[in-house]
């Protein structure tokens, strides 16, 4: 009986160093996101209702998962009609420069692995991926047919595809971020995000096409969950933890109960309802695909409190 293949190593057990993403901060989107996040921060951090804030033990960090007015199509809750809501530390609201769509995470622990990931990124045929994402056909099934037809036919098909890709006119891929959702139970959550409007599924197909290439190159940490395109706007992992006062561990004499750090959680049901129709940015062209390092850093010379991820490499979307 042949040995069973090894199970994929879970992401939480690997040293995650980088992530593949669609950056959403552009010269066009920045003013919109700045206005939206400023209003969101002012709304959530200026009212007191401590009954809806609790603490839970933090097991792991949330993966990363980025002035003028908003565009006329964007919508914000009325400034003068804010209902009482929980006090949320400002650090929980994500800085403008960190807003992105994560396609997957990577463990690139050597310079050689980093370079290989960069080479794969720079070798992407983004125009071809955009063309294929505009149709409902699967690029993977096309590839399977080519392989069955033999190497010569595959080569011809590849060359023909490349010529067609060069000659074709590709519609721009634009993103609108709308609403707020919870990453887990909204009655006791620590992560809120907004999602792109993608009625025809084109953005998702484009992102899956990129992710599949990195998966095939064995550069992405395996994840069996469906791809959830989202931009995190609130994450309490960035709020300094608090020490437990007593608790079961301390009472049972097992040690460590008094110094264990906990993570803030909140009942976000009112927030989800209030911001369900909010447009954070509207009709912004997707410009780049990037590999970024984990861990946002402060922007030198930028606006106060802004942060961004170090870009290992990026390529322009045609």
Automatic annotation (TrEMBL):
List, as start-end ranges, the regions of compositional bias called Basic and acidic residues.
148-163
- Outline the segment boundaries, as ranges, of region: Disordered: 51-93, 132-164
Can you cite an annotated GO cellular component? nucleus
**Domain A-kinase anchor protein 7-like phosphoesterase as annotated: residue spans:** 17-299
User: Per the record, where are the segments of Low complexity compositional bias?
Assistant: 51-79, 132-147
A GO biological-process term: regulation of DNA-templated transcription
What's the name of the protein?
A: A-kinase anchor protein 7-like phosphoesterase domain-containing protein
